[in-house]
C-alpha cells in the first residue's frame, strides 16, 4: 500500500512541477496532476506485470490522451495544457542521455540499443495520441448523430 502511495504522490508532484515549469494555468494543476498520476499508474502496473515497454507506454499515453481531451473540454482549455505535463513521466530522457553517452564513449552497439528504446517509446506515445484523437472524433460523431436523430 505504501508503494502505491509513494507512486501517487511523486507522480502528482512531478506532473504539477513540470506544469509550473511549462507555465500552465493554475486552474489546470489538479486535473493535469490527476491525469499524470493515472498515466503513470497504468505504465507502472503494466511494466510490473511484464508488459513490453512499448505496450506500457502506449496504454498509459492513450489514457493520458483521453483524460486530457476530457479535461480540456470540461475546463475549456487547449488539450496541450494537459498533455505536456502529464506526459513528462513517460518521456525516455534517461535512455536518450545514455545513448549519447555511449556514442561518445565509442560503444555504438549499446548506444543503438538505447536509441531503439527511445524510438519505441516515442512511437508508442505518438501512436497513443493519434488513437486518442481518433476516439474523440468517433465519440463526437456518435454524439452528433444521436442529437440529429433525436431532433428528427
From TrEMBL:
Task: Please give the organism.
Answer: Enterococcus cecorum DSM 20682 = ATCC 43198
Q: Name one GO biological process term.
A: succinate transport
Establish whether keyword Membrane is in the entry: yes
Annotated keywords: Cell inner membrane, Cell membrane, Membrane, Transmembrane, Transmembrane helix
Subcellular localization(s) per the UniProt record: Cell membrane
Please state what the protein is called.
Threonine/Serine exporter ThrE domain-containing protein
Q: Sorted alphabetically, which Pfam families does this protein's record hold?
A: ThrE_2
The source's domain of life comes to: Bacteria
Task: State the similarity comment.
Answer: Belongs to the ThrE exporter (TC 2.A.79) family.
* Residue span(s) of domain Threonine/Serine exporter ThrE: 8-134
Q: Does the keyword Phosphoprotein apply?
A: no
- An annotated GO cellular component: plasma membrane
Q: Which regions span the lipid bilayer?
A: 6-22, 29-46, 52-72, 79-104, 110-131
Amino acid at each position: 500500500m505504501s508503494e502505491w502511495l509513494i507512486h501517487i504522490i511523486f507522480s502528482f508532484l512531478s506532473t504539477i512541477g513540470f506544469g509550473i515549469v511549462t507555465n500552465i494555468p493554475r486552474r489546470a494543476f489538479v486535473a493535469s496532476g490527476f491525469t499524470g498520476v493515472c498515466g503513470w499508474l497504468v505504465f507502472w502496473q503494466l511494466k510490473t506485470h511484464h508488459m513490453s515497454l512499448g505496450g506500457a507506454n502506449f496504454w498509459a499515453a492513450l489514457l493520458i490522451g483521453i483524460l486530457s481531451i476530457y479535461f480540456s473540454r470540461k475546463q475549456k482549455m487547449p488539450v496541450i495544457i494537459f498533455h505536456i505535463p502529464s506526459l513528462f513521466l513517460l518521456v525516455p530522457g534517461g535512455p536518450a542521455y545514455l545513448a549519447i553517452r555511449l556514442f561518445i564513449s565509442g560503444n555504438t552497439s549499446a548506444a543503438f540499443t538505447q536509441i531503439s528504446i527511445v524510438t519505441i517509446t516515442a512511437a508508442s506515445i505518438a501512436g497513443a495520441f493519434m488513437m486518442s484523437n481518433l476516439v474523440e472524433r468517433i465519440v463526437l460523431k456518435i454524439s452528433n448523430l444521436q442529437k440529429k436523430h433525436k431532433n428528427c
